[in-house]
Design goal:
The chain starts with 8 loop residues before the first helix and ends with a helix. The chain contains seven helices and four strands; from the N terminus they run ααααββββααα. About 40% of the residues lie in helices and about 10% in strands. The relative contact order is 0.21. The chain has a single domain (about 15-170), classed as Intergrase catalytic core (hpI Integrase, Chain A), CATH 1.10.443.10. The strands form two sheets. It has a two-stranded antiparallel sheet. The chain has a two-stranded antiparallel ribbon with strand order 2-3. The chain is an alpha+beta fold and about 170 residues long. The radius of gyration is 16 Å and the shape is globular. Helix 3 (about 45-55) runs antiparallel to helix 5 (about 105-115).
């Protein structure tokens, strides 16, 4: 029965599914200005912007802590990720290929990080927490926020598609 369910494009076509620059900018703008009654997704605008502008895996951004960001927000160390296994979130050290990376970020990303950085951040605090202060649930974010805001602009994408967009636009 599961095999009869329709598949997303990314499940049957492994080619990159990048957004055009205008689509990317529109998506960021909608997240930033989301002001519907009830559940708004404005809180996730910095997270979405970061995904588009850095091109990291969503699990890396979800697990990013302030100790991984330089004091001036000009460098990011990707040392671990947060993944959900069942109902638990598990921190995975290293990366998919067992390497940690330090990257210099653009001035736009640096400004973004500076704008959300607390006055005296706890090094263990998440850079992009969920609305309730916990880690973002990738599944819930993709099913709810992403599908409501992004699917009308470009269907059959996921937050992981931001990686495909980063390379041609930067």
């Amino acid at each position: 029965m599961a095999q009869e369910l329709p598949k997303y494009r990314y499940q049957v076509d492994s080619k990159p599914n990048a957004f055009m620059e205008e689509e990317r900018d529109r998506i960021i703008e909608i997240f930033q200005g989301d002001n519907r009654k009830g559940m708004t997704y404005r809180h996730y605008a910095p997270f979405v912007t970061f995904l588009f502008l850095v091109g990291c895996r969503p699990s890396k951004a979800i697990g990013l802590q302030w100790k991984h960001i330089s004091d001036d927000c000009g460098f990011v160390n990707f040392e671990s990720s947060l993944v959900q296994i069942g109902n638990r979130r598990v921190r995975s050290k290293g990366s998919k290929n067992n390497r940690t990376r330090q990257i210099a970020v653009s001035s736009r990303v640096q400004s973004l990080l500076q704008s959300i950085k607390p006055e005296d951040p706890d090094p263990e605090s998440l850079v992009f927490p969920s609305r309730d202060g916990n880690s973002i649930s990738y599944r819930n974010f993709a099913r709810r926020a992403w599908s409501k805001i992004v699917d009308p602009i470009k269907p059959d994408t996921t937050p992981y598609s931001c990686r495909d967009t980063f390379i041609p636009l930067n």
